[in-house]
């Protein structure tokens, strides 16, 4: 594999499962040293570190709740002690809680906002502060952030209004910050996956009826794989995307293409 990220230091949040784990592996395969942030399941992190090291890469796990300011600060400190700096932050940690608005508790609302949106803010702030100190890094940009958003930053989703609010929020937050820091040569972009096969949506892909319904929304005719998302993140993190900032790359098999119109209006 081409080593587009040789010598760079990356941190991926929520990275011991699903999309985050694939991103960590892809960035390491392209030459980055990777921090695998996680909150649950220490043994999954250990296994992922071993897998990356077995492939010749370098990685370390750091446990932290991305919605907790002290834990985020401590995580970045630990990373800087081990790796010296950060070149690439991938804000991947995210949760969804299903409920109709009439039944939604404030605790449910607060939890989704805290992890998906406040977590993005806290990690982005720590990364930006360090990017501003970066000089002579092995990348044209001084630092790069890639957010894992969702097609639900633009597609409304009944029962998941809190999730949609966070993903739409990430979009304009990221674009505003991209505008603030473009002149400092810091790039901020998002990847918006469609339906990717991971633990977050196991209830859908493990049920044949759920899969049949999903395929009606999927012009490309298959669910996405975690590697589809990881490839887009690696591209946006690399110098090949050096002139790209403040945008969203949809990795969704055409989910945003109003699929119900494909047989005529
Ligand atoms: P996942 O559940 O495997 O990954 C989410 C990760 O975030 C888990 O490892 C979880 O432990 C971690 N996490 C949760 N709360 C955390 C916290 N407070 N601090 C640190 N880590 C925390 O599911 P996934 O599908 O891999 O999701 C990854 C990202 O992709 C999420 O942001 C999700 O919204 C987004 N996404 C997924 C899909 C999909 O179809 N799978 C589609 C669009 C967007």
Account of the 3D structure:
By secondary structure, the chain is an alpha/beta fold. The protein has one domain: NAD(P)-binding Rossmann-like Domain (Rossmann fold, 3-Layer(aba) Sandwich), CATH 3.40.50. Helices cover 42% and strands 14% of the residues. The protein has a seven-stranded parallel β-sheet, sandwiched between helices. Strand 1, helix 1 and strand 2 form a beta-alpha-beta unit. The radius of gyration is 18 Å and the shape is globular. The N and C termini lie far apart (44 Å).
| Tally of DSSP β-strands | 7
Largest sheet: 7 strands, parallel
Q: Quick one: overall form?
A: globular
| H-E string | EHEHEHEHEHEHHHE
Mean pLDDT: 97
Q: What is the CA–CA distance across the termini?
A: 44 Å
Number of domains: 1
What is the fold-level CATH name, i.e. the topology? Rossmann fold
Radius of gyration: 18 Å
CATH class: Alpha Beta
The CATH architecture can be given as 3-Layer(aba) Sandwich
Tally of contiguous helical segments: 8
Largest beta sheet: strand ordering: 3-2-1-4-5-6-7
**Class based on secondary structure composition and strand pairing:** alpha/beta
Low-confidence stretches: none
- Helix fraction, binned, reads 40-55%
What molecules are bound to this protein? nicotinamide-adenine-dinucleotide
**Fourth CATH level, the homologous superfamily:** NAD(P)-binding Rossmann-like Domain
- The fraction of residues assigned to DSSP E strands is 5-15%
